[in-house]
Amino acid sequence: MPPILALAIWFALLVALMLFDPAKDRRVSSALWVPIIWMFIVATRNPDQWLNGAPLAISAGSMEDGNPVDRAIFLTLILLAIGILVSRAFRWDQFVARNTALTMFILFALVSVIWSDFPLVAFKRWFRDLGNYLMILVVLSEPFQLGGVRTALRRLFYLFIPLSIILIKYFPQIGMGYWEWTGEAMYQGPTTSKNALGAVCMVSALFFFWDVLTRWGDRKESRTKKILAVDLVFLGMTLKLLYQANSATSRVCFAIGCLVLIALYSQWGKRHVTLVKACVLASFPLYLLLAFGLDLSGEFARSVGRDPSLTDRTQLWKILLSMHTNPLVGSGYDSFWLGARFAQVFRSFGGAINEAHNGYLEIYLNLGVIGLVILVAFLVASYRNIGKRLKVAGPSFAPLALTLWTVMLFYNMTEAAFKFHWMWITFLMGAICAPEHLVRELKPVGNELSEKAISQLHGKRTSKGFSKLPEAISESPTHRKVARLSSGRARPTT
User: Fold this and answer.
1) pLDDT the model gives residue 374
2) Is residue 201 a contact partner of residue 242, using CB atoms and an 8 Å limit?
3) How far apart are CA 50 and CA 386, in angstroms?
4) Burial class of residue 273, CB neighbours in 10 A (0-12, 13-18, 19+)
5) How many Cα atoms are found within 13 Å in the side-chain-facing hemisphere of 251?
6) Helix (H) or strand (E) holding 432
7) Is the pTM here over 0.90, yes or no?
8) 263, 276 in Cβ contact below 8 A?
9) How far apart are CA 415 and CA 404, in angstroms?
């Protein structure tokens, strides 16, 4: 098949799927496309890299100067996100109050620009990365948060997964790359490396697996059957890509994520949620003890088909720690891989590289011990918040959020993802506690639901009453009260 014809068929099928998707949620707003576009860029390549047809070579000059095309597009998306949040009367005071540790992390990163060797570059990167948080807030400020999260991720994977297959098969000059040292071919799809492709596929597989688990109880319904069919098809395609990417970290994290989801949705797990959370929390310290305390990291690497040095990562870590950056405050936000330090690593390691391949070490190099402590505080706070949401009855994003939280801990042992990275932005989707003033109207008011709140959610009242109720209402214990209101048998409270 000619490549152009394959691309045309993919685009036609994508449009048809977007229009006739059985899982389509008409309650979400069109504003959701702004974070979807942002997430696609983060997951794949920068705009200028797409226009050039191939990833740009890593060089100190290109990393410092940036690109005007990228800046223009990122700035446009950030301004659109700010405009959306302003139009929704987003309560920033509530956001700060509910996300203290994250706010401290963002502000400390901004302050660190002062002692950076490249303050202008550091500030521009900080401002760009601020877009990550704004985009997630756009998703979470949807009146139907669960529907917003589901729709954003689903549309993104509808776009990403088939495109990856098309690029690998029909456009190998884009979809495939080659190792700098060995010349070995690797699958990268629309991303810039096999590890980046593996990370997106890993989250995609976890998402569709989670969606199947949440809908399995209603599998006899006609609409649910169609949704499950789509989920299983995309799960199969994603697993094939995950295998092709050959990213050991993503494979291991996918297996860990599946174990967490299975535990949470099993009958035993539903009865012992607290114990499941405790096991999840204890798994990471146990791994650290076995891998580093008992020096079993090499055995772990061999078990997944990698060399004991974790593909030369241990050598890289020794080089980075020997460079003696400021242990307290680091080199400044996203400033370590600039100038003389980048050149020194290049000479010492023998190749171009722009990350520490360890998220915790990356934070230490850029923000020091203070930044690392604040990050850990945010991880602890997000774990507690997700745990509280797990106790809420009804459909929830919390099980997948806890899964991504767990995966994030392990993923950052061999990859640096606490930055402008696909894993970071998806993790934030479950970790951030957005103000709930836009969805609080769904809650009972004086033991009844406000008729005004319901009418505002649906725009108007149909002749049959409130015929289209949001998931948060229709699947909650107060559904019968809504039915009484719509039939006029109960007086609404105001």
Assistant:
1) 97
2) yes
3) 36
4) middle
5) 15
6) none
7) no
8) yes
9) 15
388's tokens = 């509280």
> What are residue 236's phi and psi, to 5 degrees?
-65, -45
Task: Look at the block and give the residue holding tokens 């009484």.
Answer: 484
- Tell me the per-residue pLDDT of 20-61, one tens digit each, with 9 for 90 and over: 999 998 889 999 999 999 999 999 999 988 887 655 444 444
pLDDT digits (tens, 9 = 90+) for 91-145: 899 999 999 999 999 999 999 999 999 999 999 999 999 999 999 999 999 888 8
| Cα gap 152→103, rounded to integer Å | 24
Q: In 3D, which of 251, 255, 233, 231 has the Cα closest to residue 243?
A: 251
Give one DSSP letter per residue of 222-289, joined into a string.
HHHHHHHHHHHHHHHHHHHHHHHHT-HHHHHHHHHHHHHHHHHHSHHHHH-HHHHHHHHHHHHHHHHI
Amino acid present at 97: A
Per-residue pLDDT band at 476 (split at 50, 70, 90): very low
* pLDDT reported for residue 484: 45
Q: Residue 213: helix, strand or coil by DSSP?
A: helix
Q: Name the token pair of 11.
A: 């685009």
Stretch 411-420: mean pLDDT? 91
